[in-house]
Specification:
single chain; about 475 residues; alpha/beta; Dihydrodipicolinate Reductase, domain 2; 14 helices; about 15% strand
């Protein structure tokens, strides 16, 4: 769509010095632009009632042309994105990281690329210069960065968890249909052989009916702090960090050195999703893929250490009740973190202790143990059943690689839904997982109406299905 004329004139008059201030001060709502005249922008005005602003033909790099890829986040996982895509037929005209100390890898590999600290400014100035975006920022930035990119017709790869709240996850699943761009959530194990074997054994009937699934992780451990209060006082913000943009849509708070940035944000409610949000999109992936359970009817914290409202508990055990599908019985799924582990069934005949992280699918005919977070080494138990069943019948096409799936779709070599962890799949999975965090926050069993997206027995829990966005960061969907 064409931008609002008056606003475009304002932007044109802004000097290079005050442009960033101008951009940050504008809400992403209202006129539906990021703070400038985005030609072709489809960020929707809430008064519009049609999809007329939708891109009809998203840009892509045809044939052997390199995908013009922008990065949001170039340190940590974002830095891995920069390195891992280097040999996959991409070029990088621009990138963004709030911390200029994290720019080195991107500038080393793409010395001509332009760096930004605010992705809204990057979208504003560079949107004509790239085709696709990879997002490796903290969890609370996943939704605004992703939806803006999609509304601009950009293909998007967003790290797990896909979003910070259940509402955001549902909105991105809907947006994937609306904007018709190639999408992928960064749960790399989804491209591997292990989860395909799990899918094929379960769908092939090797386990009978699955009645329980247990998933556990070694997080948080020493990975990041949880169960700690907010520190008092304030430290000077270093010159390399734009703290206001790092906070983004989250409520403002003082900067404290070595508290949130770098990678200590994961355990804070305002910024991350705790151990569950960190690893369940990996470790519970096989459950959602093989069983396709739909909405849970309830979610409940079975055990947990104290929750202070600021950071997630140091240990939790959460239960989801799934109603079952045609031909599939209802089943319960359990999550364990912070050192908690499931109790093994007496008749499992495992012959070994549980791995540090993994899954246990308990069926009416047999059980299946998955060691690790990414579907590694799935094996049917008892061993006599494994020898009899052997490898399952192949049902799923094997992957050329998780990032390769997405880039092939970006180039138009495969359909936009070719990436197997696209948002139509990853959105509902993330939504169900993040309901567990709300149950942890409320400390009680919550009954869920997925169709209306509401908790029916504890109305006050519905406040956490979504959240308030700080001024300048609200995006209409």
């Amino acid at each position: 769509m064409k931008s609002d004329t008056k606003q475009a004139e304002q932007v044109g008059a802004a000097t290079a010095t005050d442009r960033r201030t101008f951009i940050k001060g504008l809400s992403l709502a209202g006129a539906g632009v990021i703070g400038a005249g985005l030609t072709g922008c489809s960020v929707r005005d809430p008064k519009m009632t049609t999809d007329a602003q939708r891109f009809d033909a998203p840009p892509y790099a045809p044939g052997d042309q390199k995908v013009r890829l922008a990065f949001i986040g170039t340190g940590g996982m974002g830095g891995a994105h920069v390195e891992q895509t280097r040999e996959l037929g991409v070029t990088c005209p621009c990138f963004c990281d709030v911390d200029t100390n994290e720019w080195s890898k991107a500038l080393e590999l793409y010395p001509q690329a332009k760096g930004y600290q605010d992705y809204r400014e990057m979208f504003d100035k560079e949107h004509k210069n790239f085709d696709a975006v990879m997002i490796g920022a903290p969890d609370h930035h996943h939704f605004p960065a992703t939806i803006i990119a999609m509304q601009l017709g950009k293909h998007v790869y967003t790290q797990k968890p896909l979003t910070h709240t259940p509402w955001e996850a549902r909105e991105l699943a809907k947006a994937a249909k609306r904007y018709r761009v190639a999408t992928q959530m960064g749960n790399q194990g989804h491209a591997g052989e292990g989860w395909r074997l799990v899918y094929e054994w379960i769908r092939g009937g090797a386990l009978g009916h699955v009645v329980e699934v247990h998933t556990w992780t070694n997080r948080p451990g020493g990975w990041w702090p949880q169960g700690v209060p907010r520190p008092e006082g304030e430290d000077a913000v270093p010159g390399n960090l734009n703290w206001d943009v790092w906070l983004g849509p989250a409520p403002a708070r003082p900067f404290k050195a070595d508290t949130y940035h770098r990678f200590k944000w994961r355990g804070w409610w305002d910024f991350g999703c705790g151990a569950l949000g960190d690893m369940a999109c990996h470790t519970m992936d096989g459950l959602f893929w093989a069983l396709n359970p739909g909405h849970p009817r309830a979610v409940e914290p079975i055990a947990m250490s104290p929750f202070n409202g600021e950071t997630f508990p140091t240990s939790t055990m959460v239960k989801w009740e799934f109603p079952g599908r045609p031909g599939q019985r209802p089943f319960d799924a359990y999550w364990y973190d912070g050192g908690l582990r499931p109790t093994l069934p007496a008749d499992l005949e495992l012959g070994r202790s549980l791995p540090e992280t993994g899954n246990l699918f308990i069926g009416t005919k047999a059980s299946l143990l998955v060691s690790g977070d990414y579907g590694e080494s799935p094996r049917v138990y008892p061993e006599t059943k494994m020898k009899k069943i052997g490898r399952p019948k192949r049902m799923i096409e094997r992957s050329p690689g998780h990032m390769q799936e997405w880039l092939m779709a970006c180039r138009g070599e495969r359909p936009i839904d070719y990436p197997k962890s696209n948002f139509a799949y990853a959105g509902p999975m993330t939504e169900a997982i993040l309901l567990g965090n709300i149950a942890i926050r409320m400390g009680r069993r919550l009954e869920w109406d997925g169709a209306s997206m509401k908790f029916t027995n504890v109305p006050e829990a519905n406040a956490f299905v979504t959240k308030e966005y700080r001024q300048g960061w609200k995006v209409w969907t």
